[in-house]
Each structure stands twice: as C-alpha cells, then as structure tokens.
Design a protein that fits this description.
The chain is of the alpha+beta class and 232 residues long. Among the domains are: 72 residues, 434 Repressor (Amino-terminal Domain), CATH 1.10.260.40; 69 residues, Immunoglobulin-like (Sandwich), CATH 2.60.40. The chain has eight helices and seven strands; from the N terminus they run ααααααααβββββββ. The strands form two sheets. Strands 3-2-5-6 form a four-stranded antiparallel sheet. α1 crosses α3 and α4 runs antiparallel to α5. The protein is flat, with a radius of gyration of 31 Å. The N and C termini lie far apart (94 Å).
Amino acid sequence: MDEITLGDTLRFTRMRLKISHEALAERSNIRIDYIKALEQEDFAALPERPLVRGFIQILAYELSLDLPMLEGKLDQVWQPQELRYHVWQEPETGFLWNLAPVFPVVLILALVGWLVFSAIHASSGGNLEAKPSVLETNVQAKTIPLSVKTVPPGAYVYLDRGFIGLSPITNFPITQRLKGQLRVVKAGFKPYQDSLELIEGHSIEINLEVIPVAVPVANSVVNPVVIPAAKP
C-alpha cells in the first residue's frame, strides 16, 4: 500500500475536521490558493521553500498533525536544492598546450579593461571614491541568529511581514541588515511589535498582555423605577 502523500494528509485531515478552505485560511493567515496548492502538491504555485516550511508548521498546529511527519513528507516531494561546485582538475598532459589558443583572447580582454579603467580614472580626475560594489555588499552580508521566546508560547512570529515560525524560536537564521520589524500575534493577547537592529544576533523574551474581557456581575439587581400615581 502506497504511503499517503503530503497533499492527501492535509486534505483528508481538513475534511475530517470539517474545516473549509476559507475557515482554515482565516485561522492560519495563509492564502487560500497556497493551501489548495499544498493539498494538490502544486509547488510551482507556491513561494520560496522557507516560506512553505513555515506554512507546514502553521498547518500542523491548526490541524493537530505531527510536524516532523509533515516535514518529512515535504522533503520527499520537494527536496532542498543542493549547491554543487565544480572543482577544476588539471589534465594529465598538455594543459598549457590546450590553453594556448585562449591566450590571445585573454590579452585582448585585459587590454580593453585597462583602457576602460584609464578612461574612467582620467575623467574623475584621479579621485575614485572607494565605494563597495553590489557584489562586495552581498559578499560582506552574513547570517545572524534570532531567538524569540514568548510567555505564553505558541505565538505567531513575523519579521518584516514574513512568517518565521511559532514561538519559541531558537537561532533562526536571518540576513544581517540595519533594521527589521518584529511582530508577534496570539489569539486572546495584545499584538506585540518592535523595531530591531539586526547587525548582530538577538535573543528576545516577550511577555504577552492578555486582552481584558468584560465579565458580567452575578446577581446584579436593577433598582426598579417607581412611577408616582396620578392625582385624582
């Protein structure tokens, strides 16, 4: 017997609990088309894989499913892309001889590059401001950890409007930048929002405030209004 797929597990569980797509989307804050795409395993209609793993975490919580089981099914049908690097190996013989036809092209490109650099240097008066290029900026950017703990746990945590998981979150990798907007939401509690400097890692603990609910006073008696009788 074939194993039940990720899409079948989500669809059958939702139908067994008698939850419509609309109700699940409202409870989970996930778009209806994303929920349907997960049930149909239409990964071309879904966003990036880290966001999809966040969707899986939310749906596991809302449908009372085992999260490691769902993540395993996701990895079976949508495996992470592995980065492969080609390592150049020198041939046993004739290495320089095989590169001989390339030498003239390399020399011409080097000459053209030198001429372009000389022209730019001359037009700027010899004062080239040292500014990092886009490539250098991307290389210098690094990943820092973010940990968020809430009291009580089980709150939805967003960073710059992107869902990163349910609290507690430990060492979630984020790209280093100047600032980020942290937002924490849990039913029955006031939303928490704060601006963070994301130059280095953070470990945050948040005590969520309960939304007060008006409780009717028991055995309350309303004084009756006495209307005086009309005089004859």
